[in-house]
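Aim 2 progress update. The chain analyzed this quarter is reproduced below.
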Amino acid sequence: MAALCHRGEGADREFLLVTSRDTARWIIPKGWPIRGLNSRETALREAWEEAGVKSRKITDRPVGSYTYQKRQTGGMEVPVETQVYSVAVDEVLAEFPEAHERKRKWVDAETAAELVNETELKAIFRNQ
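Predicted structure tokens:
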């Protein structure tokens, strides 16, 4: 599950990208299913842990999905499909669980599409 975090409206709309821990490439907050949480709740938890996002506004259904290669211990990569939920950001806190492991950046949709690697994720940004 992943969180497409955004703020602002129309031409002023911005999206939040974070760096991955292993390669420092630009991504959106995402993670594996969490026992006891549904997909939407998992996306919100990942937005908090990876980006310090506080929000109660998340779409009921995914706005899309994308596939990425997850590197396992030992170097093997496996394809993972993740559902993306739109999250309207209420607040972004300076202190959050992974604050010392990641950088954050607010950008417009086209810049976000240029910075991420995954083709399907680029398309999600360009359709916003």
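The two ends are 18 Å apart (CA to CA). The longest strand covers residues 77-88. These observations will guide the mutagenesis experiments scheduled for the next reporting period.
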